Task: inverse folding
């Protein structure tokens, strides 16, 4: 007697039975998307610096006008950090990053159509506003879909993408600009990277689902899942959040001194030739990129072996900032090659700290406010980015030397060390009504 064939109903699995991205090896595709996204982000950000000589000549801009245009990026970028983090926490990584990426790419493309300085400044500000979402979204993605022991590796990888993006636009952009001009340059680099949005939207569409319609009681509960804008700023009253803010201010202060003034320092203070300046102002960043990857991997390795994550992240940050203080003797020694070596080691110190500054935020904050606190962190960093280049240039102009400016940078780094050591000790948990405890 033949038994009838059993048929299994095609019933969809309940949500709890579907493995999360955190448990799937496909999360490494997400890491690749984060790295590529950050490469494009910094290629867009650095494009104006590469195009500046061509634009100054064609548009008859003065160096002072170009300086204003270069700085316009930070005018909105800095103050959009907290709102951008809030958007990530409220609307999800997928939507927030995709919309921000598309917005800033179109602003970059429109730069090729701009007529006059005011239009260029306006588009540069829009570029900054759009890119404000990049770091909060990346930090929230790491918190959502990677294990604690993997955070340093993933964060270090997309931070290495930052340096690669700047190097890529600098290397390829110069040849393109010489052949086709700055207008087509901005159009191409603005439109082509929009292709990134397609795999990003498709991939996370499978893993980050929009919440279903909820009952009134559930809506009331969900309304407390993330703080409002005013309550987001109130998070600064929490000791650990203020420590993150102040510590990253110190980190980025030093970083933007290097990013904006290293070539000028080598040429004006140390009298390097243009060829020497090109080598000695680029090689330290390559070394720093390698150190960032090693730091992220090594910190994760220690955590996998059972070390407490917060303690490991803080140790790497403090050690790195201490090494970065070598910027002080670099400004005082007489031998110019010794100065370059000290600055290279100092940048490597920032590289040791770099991935752990972001993963520490993820470690001490509850998941539903990681984007918001990351925005606060980057807000503090970019305040340092606004102050550091201007103050360094003013001191160098007034004293006819960079020595005092570099010593002040060292003092700021000490403040950062103390902030990470003494202020960040408590877990930041979201509370009903948007506060933290």
Result:
């Amino acid at each position: 007697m033949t038994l009838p064939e059993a048929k299994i109903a095609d019933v969809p699995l309940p949500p709890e039975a579907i493995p999360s991205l955190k448990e799937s090896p496909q999360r490494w595709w997400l890491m690749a998307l984060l790295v590529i996204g950050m490469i494009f982000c910094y290629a867009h950000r650095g494009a104006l610096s590469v195009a500046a000589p061509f634009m100054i000549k064609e548009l008859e801009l003065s160096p002072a006008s170009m300086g204003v245009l270069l700085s316009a990026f930070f005018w909105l970028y800095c103050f959009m950090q907290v709102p951008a983090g809030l958007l990530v926490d409220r609307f999800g990584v997928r939507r927030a990053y995709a919309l921000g990426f598309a917005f800033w790419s179109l602003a970059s493309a429109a730069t090729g159509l701009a007529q006059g300085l005011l239009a260029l400044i306006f588009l540069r500000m829009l570029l900054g506003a759009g890119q404000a979402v990049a770091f909060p979204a990346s930090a929230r993605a790491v918190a959502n879909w990677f294990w604690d022991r993997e955070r340093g590796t993933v964060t270090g990888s997309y931070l290495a993408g930052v340096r690669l993006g700047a190097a890529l636009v600098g290397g390829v952009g110069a040849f393109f600009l010489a052949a086709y001009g700055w207008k087509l340059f901005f159009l191409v680099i603005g439109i082509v990277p929009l292709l990134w949005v397609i795999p990003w939207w498709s991939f996370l569409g499978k893993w980050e689902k929009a919440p279903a319609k909820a009952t009134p009681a559930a809506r009331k509960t969900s309304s407390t899942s993330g703080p409002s804008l005013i309550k987001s700023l109130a998070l600064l009253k929490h000791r650990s959040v203020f420590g993150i803010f102040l510590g990253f201010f110190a980190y980025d202060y030093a970083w933007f001194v290097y990013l904006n003034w290293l070539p000028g320092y080598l040429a004006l203070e140390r009298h390097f030739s243009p060829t020497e300046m090109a080598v000695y102002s680029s090689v330290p960043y390559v070394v720093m990129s390698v150190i960032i990857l090693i730091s992220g991997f090594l910190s994760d390795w220690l955590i996998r072996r059972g070390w407490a994550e917060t303690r490991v992240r803080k140790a790497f940050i403090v050690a790195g900032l201490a090494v970065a203080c070598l910027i002080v003797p670099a400004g005082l020694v007489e031998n110019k090659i010794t100065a370059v070596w000290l600055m290279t080691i100092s940048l490597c110190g920032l590289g040791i700290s770099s991935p752990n500054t972001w993963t520490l935020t993820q470690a001490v904050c509850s998941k539903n406010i990681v984007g918001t606190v990351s925005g606060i962190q980057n807000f503090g960093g970019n305040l340092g980015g606004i102050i550091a280049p201007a103050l360094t240039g003013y001191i160098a102009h007034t004293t006819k030397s960079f020595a005092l400016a570099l010593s002040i940078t060292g003092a700021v780094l000490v403040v950062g060390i103390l902030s990470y050591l003494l202020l960040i000790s408590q877990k930041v948990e979201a509370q009903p009504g948007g506060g933290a405890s």
